[in-house]
Structure to design on (661 residues):
């Protein structure tokens, strides 16, 4: 198992008022992302636990791209990864941010 | 210890327990007075629909007679019977029904005591030994939830690797020590002294209602989280609206 | 606690839950879509990070909720406790934390006495890597479940997920007040592969899907009496049947146990020599037994209802 952690500055605070959201399932080729609104508005952190070791560079690139596109300011994203491909990771990260930005019905 | 020797030591005054192709049914007098109902599995047979239905009937008969004496569940079984027929007929219901009868009896005041004297595994273990209030074992008993060869096949780890990992945790490998540490088995009896005496002591000891196996597992460090998690959920639920 | 919406955005765009597949949904989606909007409060949610302490030994990833969602909510205004297993995480199998969450919920139901429990089963049984803890959890769940039923609590099991309801899960299901199952659902103790591995392919060919479904699947369980109700694979159907069963099952006690003993003895007597499910269905005078596997869920529901209601005085 490998643990990775990336801290970034974000352009702006993620929208909405929800403090918590979760998406995905830990299974082969899949991952779960827990997102908490617990950081200062221009900070973002992604913590990863993964069974697939040695892919640090790939995670770094995917996350840097994600931060650039989605500006997840104030969000801490925690990932349990079951060996997902980079595009699945990118999808889940984006879904997680959309979820926490959604208004409560 | 053979089954006959065990029964003789449990009931030195005699008993009427019969072994009918591995299904044990009967009763015997207790040291301190009264009579114990006895059910069980012998000769390491598998527990299928035909066995389970007879055991549950014996328990219910005792309940209907208004019995207040303890129910002793003697176990030397294989796993549940693995067959098309048993699954077709709804084995899950038969095993659940046996467990329900035992749990119900215990809640009505008929203390249920499991005595593991041989093997047991998986679904058979759940419906018999693990459906009692307290479970004790004789030395040499071999309880097993999941056998290592099957685990090896599914995890794709060799048996040697599994055995190595089992040295650092009691949570998955078979064996009396592991099942004791996780809270399933209360204690191992001494087969060289009277089992009747040991049974009497057990029946007389603290029999406060409630399932405390998770707390035992925590004390013995076999299950560090179960008791606390259950308690937290319980308390949160009670506070919720 | 803040109301939290923990669901996938794609499903939230669906206008209503009438057509959402139970089978395809995650545990969280089933809970959210089945319960009244905004009513769900989770106990020890994923943000608590109470994960399995035992999977690291096997280099396996953990899930923040250890594969089960437990909490309280309402269905059509009726308060309920709910537990939903995630069948895609470790096959929905019972581990130490996973099991303990359900044990605690059932003990709370026992002490509350007035709130029914829904268990959304999706499990292969005990989690191998934590076998002893998983097995004990199941034993404790069964004990807590019966204690709750003795206190008057109705406990309804819903089965229709990817993992089915196998192993110790099948035993817990047998302890519930009533069960509802869909076509995709399966209920058993030993899974098809386990029977084949232990007894050979002649005893059970695990790759014969039709055989698996005839032997353990939703339709057979409904016709045999292994489940009280058969429903369509939609969240709405499960929601409706849950309410219906909560309202209709009797209390638990010696009479129910005696009725169950009689029911199971009669089953053995009538069907104990049947070689296959089709023989059982024929013996039950089911019209055109061979066609049962192929007919639609809605047609099957009609057929099953025509052939008499299940006994509600047993189980």
């Amino acid at each position: 198992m490998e643990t990775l952690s990336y801290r970034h500055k974000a352009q702006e605070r993620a929208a909405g008022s929800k403090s918590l959201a979760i998406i995905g399932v830990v299974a082969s080729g899949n991952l779960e992302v827990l997102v908490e609104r617990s950081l200062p508005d221009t900070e973002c952190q992604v913590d990863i636990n993964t069974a697939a070791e040695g892919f640090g560079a790939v995670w770094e690139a995917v996350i840097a791209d994600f931060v650039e596109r989605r500006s997840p300011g104030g969000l801490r994203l925690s990932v349990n990864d079951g060996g997902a491909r980079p595009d699945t990771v990118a999808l889940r990260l984006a879904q997680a941010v959309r979820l926490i930005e959604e208004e409560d019905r | 210890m053979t089954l006959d020797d065990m029964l003789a030591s449990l009931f030195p005054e005699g008993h009427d327990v019969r072994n009918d192709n591995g299904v044990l049914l009967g009763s015997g007098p207790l040291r301190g007075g009264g009579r114990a109902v006895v059910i069980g599995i012998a000769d390491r047979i598998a527990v299928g629909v035909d066995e389970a239905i007879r055991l549950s009937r014996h328990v219910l008969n005792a309940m209907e007679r208004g019995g207040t004496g303890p129910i002793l569940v003697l176990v030397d079984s294989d796993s549940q019977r693995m067959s098309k027929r048993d699954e077709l007929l709804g084995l899950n219901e038969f095993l659940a029904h046996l467990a329900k009868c035992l749990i119900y009896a215990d809640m009505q005041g008929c203390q249920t005591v499991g005595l593991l004297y041989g093997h047991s595994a998986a679904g058979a273990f759940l419906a018999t030994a693990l459906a009692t209030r307290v479970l004790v074992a004789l030395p040499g008993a071999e309880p097993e939830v999941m056998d290592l060869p099957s685990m090896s096949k599914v995890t794709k780890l060799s048996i040697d690797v599994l055995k190595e990992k089992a040295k650092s945790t009691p949570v998955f490998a078979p064996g009396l020590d592991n099942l004791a540490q996780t809270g399933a088995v209360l204690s191992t009896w001494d087969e060289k002294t009277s089992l009747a005496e040991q049974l009497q002591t057990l029946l007389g000891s603290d029999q406060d209602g409630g399932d405390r196996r998770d707390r035992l597992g925590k004390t013995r460090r076999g299950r560090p989280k179960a008791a606390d998690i259950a308690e937290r959920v319980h308390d949160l639920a009670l506070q919720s609206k | 606690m803040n109301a939290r919406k923990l669901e996938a955005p794609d499903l939230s765009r669906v206008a209503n839950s009438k057509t959402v597949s139970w089978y395809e949904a995650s545990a969280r989606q089933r809970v959210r879509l089945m319960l009244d909007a905004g009513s769900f409060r989770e106990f020890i949610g994923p943000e608590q990070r109470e994960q399995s302490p035992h999977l690291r030994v096997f280099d396996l990833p953990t899930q923040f909720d250890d594969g089960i969602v437990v909490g309280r909510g309402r269905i059509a205004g009726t308060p309920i406790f709910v537990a939903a297993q995630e069948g895609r995480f470790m096959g929905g199998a019972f581990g130490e934390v996973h099991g303990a969450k359900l044990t605690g919920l059932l003990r709370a139901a026992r002490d509350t006495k007035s709130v029914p429990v829904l268990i959304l089963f999706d499990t292969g049984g005990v989690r191998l890597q934590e076998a002893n803890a998983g097995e004990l959890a199941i034993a404790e769940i069964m004990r807590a479940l019966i204690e709750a039923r003795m206190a008057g609590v109705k406990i309804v099991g819903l089965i229709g997920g990817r993992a089915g309801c196998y192993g110790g899960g099948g035993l817990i299901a047998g302890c519930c007040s009533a069960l509802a199952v869909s076509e995709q659902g399966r209920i058993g103790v030993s899974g098809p592969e386990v029977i084949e591995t232990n007894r050979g392919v002649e005893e059970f060919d695990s790759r014969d899907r039709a055989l698996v479904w005839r032997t353990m699947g939703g339709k057979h369980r409904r016709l045999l009496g292994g489940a009280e109700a058969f429903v369509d694979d939609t969240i709405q159907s499960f929601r409706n049947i849950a309410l219906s069963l909560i309202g209709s099952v009797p209390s638990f006690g010696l009479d129910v146990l005696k009725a169950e003993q009689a029911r199971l003895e009669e089953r053995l007597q009538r069907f104990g020599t049947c070689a296959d499910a089709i023989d059982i269905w024929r013996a039950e005078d089911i019209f055109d037994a061979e066609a049962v596997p192929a007919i639609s869920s809605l047609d099957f529901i009609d057929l099953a209802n025509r052939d008499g209601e299940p006994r509600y005085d047993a189980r």
Notes: The two ends of chain C are 37 Å apart (CA to CA).
